[in-house]
């Protein structure tokens, strides 16, 4: 993996660049659609590529449970398994997360109204993760060496360590993978945040060590098979000449470390210094935030992390947050919001979100947005999409998701171009003024 900064944003940490992976380039800043189970819900890979996405992210935890990382490896890796190919037949870049977010979603957040971003920190929502099972229902329990997960599919118990997470991700064969971490609840107190941060740092070191070990094993395996081929001991085209986990001659994945620390400035900076000092290829900015101080937390971290390596803000994707992230040095974003909202009938427009099932859209024969070039807007009217949702037809969610992903993916592309054109702040002000006018 190679990262080149093309242009820096004046008076801020923002920049535009190109991230070159084993399967092609990602022009940054970029939005990464989430394909949790090797599929962006309700869309085909072709549809995701057609709307402008250059890279997608899949979920380690879910793919480990179903269909299993070893099966994916046998299929040739995620690229082959889900046919993530460009129009010229070449594979596109892919990412996998570590499963660390499930520590939060299946642990502290399970059964409670706690999200990654909170406007109000309410201690009454706290689920102390280190207490016994009688305190609260949850599917994840944290230990010092890893996390015990209870499968949401069949109730079976699985123990995932940093080493296990990295092994799974190498089997899945993405271009960029993440270290295993603990994503804490925004309601946790400082004492627990400190404890969790130390654990995340230990897990980062272990993730990195396991990754480096696997990379060396893969190099040795490839060198051995090439040597056998050179001596005529292997027939041309033998599968033994391929790397065992990725199914290609391309390089091993790049590994990103994850910065945690919650809402506390000292913890965030401490984490950025520690993770930034390790030999990671890039960095994820993880954890949960209060909406009002997310910008400060991202700026604390980006100001410390090495400038020459890419930064990924995990799980953030609302339009206003994208501008904030880019301005504060973020290169990549991922979020389920565009497709999740789309499947539920909430659709992005330049004037804000609309609820397509509202009465006024039943006889609205205009497209979602007249100047939008997405497949949905070029071919369908609001009344038809509203009809699909009222009739509970699956196509409704697909069409809304196509538009939402197109809107977000191409918004970030426009943000990138505004940096190259020295018009970022002008574009930001103009867009947000219109977006918040509804």
From TrEMBL:
Instruction: List this protein's GO terms for biological process.
Output: tRNA queuosine(34) biosynthetic process
Q: Which UniProt keywords apply?
A: Glycosyltransferase, Metal-binding, Queuosine biosynthesis, Transferase, tRNA processing, Zinc
Q: Mind naming one GO cellular-component term on file for this protein?
A: cytosol
Coiled coil location: none
Binding of substrate, residues = 97-101, 181, 260, 287
For this protein, what reaction is catalysed?
7-aminomethyl-7-carbaguanine + guanosine(34) in tRNA = 7-aminomethyl-7-carbaguanosine(34) in tRNA + guanine
Cofactor field: Zn(2+)
Which residues does the Swiss-Prot or TrEMBL record annotate as the active site? 97, 334
Q: Name one Pfam family in it.
A: TGT
Looking at the record, the residues that make up the tRNA-guanine(15) transglycosylase-like domain are 14-109, 114-224, 253-436
Q: Could you tell me what this protein is called?
A: Queuine tRNA-ribosyltransferase
Show the stretches that span the lipid bilayer.
none
Q: Which organism is it from?
A: Candidatus Nomurabacteria bacterium RIFCSPLOWO2_01_FULL_42_17
The annotated pathway is: tRNA modification; tRNA-queuosine biosynthesis
């Amino acid at each position: 993996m190679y990262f080149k900064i093309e242009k820096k944003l004046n008076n801020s940490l923002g920049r535009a660049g190109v991230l070159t992976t084993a399967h092609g380039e990602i022009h940054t800043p970029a939005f990464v659609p989430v394909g949790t189970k090797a599929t962006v819900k309700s869309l085909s890979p072709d549809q995701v590529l057609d709307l402008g996405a250059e890279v997608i992210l899949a979920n380690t935890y879910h793919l480990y449970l179903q269909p299993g990382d070893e099966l994916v490896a046998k299929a040739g890796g995620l690229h082959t398994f889900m046919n993530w190919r460009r129009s010229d037949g070449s594979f596109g870049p892919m990412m996998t997360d570590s499963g660390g977010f499930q520590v939060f979603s299946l642990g502290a957040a399970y059964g409670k109204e706690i999200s990654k971003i909170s406007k109000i920190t309410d201690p009454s929502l706290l689920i102390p993760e280190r207490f016994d099972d009688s305190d609260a229902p949850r599917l994840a329990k944290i230990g010092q060496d890893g996390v015990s997960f209870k499968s949401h599919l069949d109730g079976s118990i699985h123990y995932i360590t940093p080493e296990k997470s990295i092994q799974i991700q190498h089997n899945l064969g993405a271009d960029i993978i993440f270290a295993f971490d603990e994503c804490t609840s925004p309601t946790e107190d400082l004492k627990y945040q400190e404890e969790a941060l130390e654990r995340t740092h230990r897990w980062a070191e272990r993730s990195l060590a396991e990754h480096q070990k696997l990379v060396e094993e893969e190099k040795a395996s490839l060198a051995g098979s090439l040597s056998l081929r050179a001596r005529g001991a292997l027939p041309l085209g033998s599968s033994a000449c391929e790397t065992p986990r990725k199914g290609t001659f391309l390089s091993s994945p790049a590994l990103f470390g994850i910065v945690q620390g919650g809402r506390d400035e000292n913890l965030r900076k401490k984490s950025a210094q520690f993770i930034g000092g390790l030999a990671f290829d890039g960095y994820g900015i993880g954890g949960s935030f209060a909406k009002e101080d997310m910008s400060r937390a991202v700026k604390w971290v980006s100001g410390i992390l090495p400038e020459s390596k890419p930064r990924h803000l995990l799980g953030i994707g609302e339009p206003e947050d994208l501008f904030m992230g880019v301005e504060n040095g973020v290169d990549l974003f991922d979020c389920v919001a565009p497709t999740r909202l789309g499947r539920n009938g909430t659709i992005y427009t330049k004037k804000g979100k609309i609820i397509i099932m509202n009465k006024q859209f039943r006889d609205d024969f205009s497209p979602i947005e007249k100047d939008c070039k997405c497949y949905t807007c070029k071919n369908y009217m609001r009344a038809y999409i509203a009809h699909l949702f009222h009739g509970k037809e699956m196509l409704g969610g697909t069409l809304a998701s196509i538009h939402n992903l197109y809107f977000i993916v191409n918004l970030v592309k426009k943000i990138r171009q505004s940096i190259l054109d020295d018009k970022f702040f002008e574009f930001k002000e103009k867009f947000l003024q219109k977006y918040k006018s509804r």
